[in-house]
Amino acid sequence: MTEANDTQRELIAFRIGRQEFCVDIMSVREIRGWTPATPLPRSPGYMKGVINLRGTVLPIIDLGARFGLETSEPTARHVIMVAHIGGRMVGLLVDAVSDILEMNDAAVQPTPDVASDQVKTFVKGIFSIDGRMISLIELDHILPQVEAEAA
Amino acid sequence: MVSDISGRGVGMDVVRRSIQALGGRISISSVPGKGSTFTLSLPLTLAVLDGMVVTAADQTLIAPLPAIVESLTPQESDLHYVGGLDPVIRFRDRFLPLIDVALTMGFRETPMVPSEGVAVVVETEGGQQAALLFDAIQGQRQVVIKSLETNYRQVEGVAAATILGDGRVALILDVDVLVTDMRRKSPRSDFKLAS
């Protein structure tokens, strides 16, 4: 067997609505509470705006909306996961962060075929833990696709 | 002169820490009996802008002062509608397009009553003049420019951002784009569509 299957990864699990997801913990820099964001004009609906993170302007993406899930207005009970994605710092708005999981790559199951195309873009696979289904999320495509940059 | 408060170098230490917090450096050279020279250096990326703080709907925005010609309260008698639809305002002897900023940026769904707001006459780099309609003018201040593109991307009509005294982010308007490129939305068009 190849060594890759024995790779242990630390993942941070979080909840959006009644669904559970997880991402590689190395992508997540910090976790903070929700603060009202300054909206950006003419932006996609999942773009909540920007907040001040110790002097840096941090965009906030409503992850549930990005996945096409039903979402509610953010409140103080929501959580922002500050993630490092492709050289940028981005805030991901979720309902709650639950636990840190140590998972073996071998434990990842392929995404079931019922998933919509939108979900398949972000979900790399799923874990089954104590009867919970936790979807492993790929963060690379979370930000809105940048149109061809003007020269 | 040394007293209970002054002369103990406390002020100097505060200055040094503040400059270092901005990523800069300060040095002193003194010639006894002649004087002292303080040399301050700040990173080029610490760009500062003189801005007019305005509100559009419930949003606080910054309009760059170099682009501003004058501000005025729109009088009903100075307001006209080209073709019955496009608002213009009489300014001196000309008619300038009146741009409802909150409406254009999607902060509000319906146009505001011009005489209830304030019109800021601006001029683009190309010499075009227009009047930007805001809810109110809050004041004037120098703001530190923060990039929106570092962590996100370019946003139409927005040049950059800044952090206000209360810690909130305020957008700095790109007057040129606002006046020339952004289509003024009529109340019926759906501008919630993703760009």
TrEMBL record, chain A:
Gene3D superfamilies: CheA-289, Domain 4, SH3 Domains. Residues 8-148 form the CheW-like domain. One of its GO terms (biological process) is signal transduction. CDD domains: CheW (cd00732). InterPro entries: CheW, CheW-like_dom_sf, CheW-lke_dom. It comes from the Bacteria. SMART domains: CheW. Pfam families: CheW. GO terms for cellular component: cytosol. This is Purine-binding chemotaxis protein CheW. It comes from Brevundimonas aurantiaca.
